[in-house]
Amino acid sequence: MKRTTLWKRMAAAVLSSALLIGAAFTTQYRADAAEVSGKIVVAGSTALLPLTQQAAKEFKKHHPKVKIVVSGSSSIAGPQSVAKGVATIGACDWDATRAVGGFPAYKGLKAYKIAKIPFAVIVNKNNAVNNLSVQQIQDIYEGKITNWKQVGGKDEEIVVINRAKGSGTRVNFEDKIMDGHAIKTSGDNYKEVQKSGDMVNAVSSNPNAIGFVDLAYVKGGIKAVSINGVKATTANAASGKYVFYGYGYLLTKGEAKGADKAFINYILSQKFQHGSLKKLKFIPVK
């Protein structure tokens, strides 16, 4: 009986300690959540917009005292907005602390790599073409190939859709696909759009259009063509088999502090990297 009583007392003590530890962790988490406050303003990349919007939604639940405003226009607007003090965090499809694609390096900013971005060359979902080589894509955007029948499609003129200068998706397209070949930016069948959403609308509404966007936007009236016979998937981009990808960055003026730091840390957390980020067709960097 004495031995039984002793074991019961020990079990009760262990349970009590576990409850106290659990309560301590719960209290600490709630205290940490309460301590984060302020305003976060994210501006820049529309390619990263699905990611930053989802992160803001989740972060707000954990930190209700933080006000978050997220918008997207173009990658170049990210570092520009932070440098001017209009935004606290800039989203960009390249490391804007370095000179890239004709854009200068933004001094005084700190870049945080948050995701690998798979991009896709897209056509209307009713287009019969499902695969293009890098050479064929280059020839289309240079104006050398002008009819879909030249690449196995219908006898219809190709309508080329490009992103406006300042787009990070365009910077990556010129780097990974065009590889020094100049895009023909004139003619009746050439059009430029401002945002990723505009690109989707332009291609989905025109059966003869071709464009490019990040994989997160591929749905509805558009489809991604394979490049060099390799499908546009996160798995192929992660392995390096698929050639059209880039990296997404968040930029702050100097080292991130306060709510900005907490928000970036949340995006880089295992929970977000291997949860919502992957569901949105981005590839974790952590």
From TrEMBL:
Pfam families: PBP_like_2. Keywords: Cell membrane, Lipoprotein, Membrane, Palmitate, Phosphate transport, Signal, Transport. It is found in: Cell membrane. Residues 34-270 form the PBP domain. It comes from the Bacteria. Its main location: membrane. The keyword ATP-binding does not apply. It is a lipid-anchor. CDD domains: PBP2_phosphate_like_1. Residues 1-23 form the signal peptide. The keyword Protein biosynthesis does not apply. Belongs to the PstS family. NCBIfam families: ptsS_2. PANTHER family: PERIPLASMIC PHOSPHATE BINDING COMPONENT OF PHOSPHATE ABC TRANSPORTER (PTHR30570), PHOSPHATE-BINDING PROTEIN PSTS 1 (PTHR30570:SF4). The complex is composed of two ATP-binding proteins (PstB), two transmembrane proteins (PstC and PstA) and a solute-binding protein (PstS). Involved in the system for phosphate transport across the cytoplasmic membrane. Part of the ABC transporter complex PstSACB involved in phosphate import. This is Phosphate-binding protein. It comes from Geobacillus icigianus.
